[in-house]
Amino acid sequence: MFCCQSCGQTQQKWMGKCPACQSWNTLTEEVSSDRLKKPKRTPGPKPTRITEVVHEFVKRYSFGLAELDRVLGGGLVPGSVTLISGEPGIGKSTLLLTCAHRIAELGQTVLYVSGEESLTQIHMTAERLGALNPRLLLLAETNLESARQAIEETRPNVLILDSVQTLYSPEIGSVAGSVSQIREVTAQIVQQAKSNNMATFLVGHVTKDGQIAGPRLLEHMVDTVLYFETARSGPYRFLRAHKNRFGSTQELGVFEMRSTGLIEVSNPSAFFLAERPVGRPGSAIAAAIEGSQPILVEVQALCVQTLFGNPRRTTVGIESTRCAMIAAVLEKHAGIALSGYDLFLNVAGGAMLSETAVDLPVAVALASSLTGKAVEADLVCFGEIGLSGEIRGIHRVESRLQEAKRMGFRRAVLPQVSLEGLSVPSGFEVISVSTLSKAMEAALCLGS
Questions:
Q1: Rounded Cα–Cα distance for residues 50 and 406 (Å)
Q2: What values do phi and psi take at 91, rounded to 5?
Q3: Residue 447 CB burial class (10 angstroms; 0-12, 13-18, ≥19)
Q4: Sorting pLDDT into bands at 50, 70 and 90, what band is 446?
Q5: Element (H, E) at 400
Q6: Residue 97, Cβ neighbours under 10 Å: how many?
Q7: What pTM value is reported for the model?
Q8: Gap between the Cα atoms of 360 and 284, Å rounded
Q9: Of these four, 183, 260, 284, 433, which has the most CB atoms within 10 Å of its CB?
Q10: Secondary structure of the chain: what % helix, strand, coil (to 5)?
């Protein structure tokens, strides 16, 4: 049979284009397995009433890294399976070796199975990171059956497989890294992790477009999916949870890569505002929420008169459709004509902003770049913009104001509806606005 390496769809003959996911040159030949025999009928488990289920308190493993623990939802849950992916060389193995050392220091046994590096190479990396511990066991193996036998003999509390694409099952006729192999390896590891109450990390490769290599089914088989991303420049790394059965998927962990390993960045706002220009037009500070953590980021805008018939809308870190919508509302309800200009938007530091609270900072940055008027250095703003030019309320206003005050800001432009029951920090001035024209007047002293 021919199996698509992107979606897992099987075909009886080769095709240049997969009919399921429309990907080109992804169908590869695989040998079908004859293991699917009719099993003997055995008595199965009986259903249990939900009111009779005994719930036991689960104690999580804490790594001592606040950024990682928060992204995981408070620590690593025993028996869970976590898939972590990222570009080659981004630091996946470095992060997992650090985690393995932290768990071993708690008195737990960790088995690190590597299919890409030898024992000597892993030891050299662990020695550089200061992660040598007798409770950290190493195994260089690509055969799944041999790895499972070592797991049964050692009975580790935490298992790390680096990576799942390098392991192969002898019962499957295809090569290692194919869809059938990845699916079979993951299924057996998940079953063993659940039966032994063993927390497991799976390292996954990514494709050219940044997706996890293998079918999307792989993400459904695990409990948590973490993406390890890098900033556009510099040694900083971002850790995001795209799926988490034991916590939020909105958390963001920030790390810095150094010669001694990954160091957590406990103050992301200072990182995003480190090189903020003061007194320059086209810059506005947004108070955003990433999961449970408020952070301050700089939104940069540049308006250039277009030389073509269709003005460009280029954005980095913000959806381009939202930029086009905000520009249209500015022109319709604030009298700021942007239809004849190319608009360029950028979120400094490589952050990705998706919440609607950044609408107002985007509008302020665009208006500042067009008019040449700079925003005051101690001003922060946030709020959602409606199509009628109104400023809508947002959530967690107090935490945003507290973070702004901690970073040295003294004023904030926010929605008027958010003032109800709001506790303003002492020494902090809030300017409430209900329309976009009033927001422009408050932030840039532009008449309505």
A1: 47
A2: 120, 25
A3: exposed
A4: low
A5: helix 397-406
A6: 24
A7: 0.75
A8: 9
A9: 284
A10: 30, 25, 45
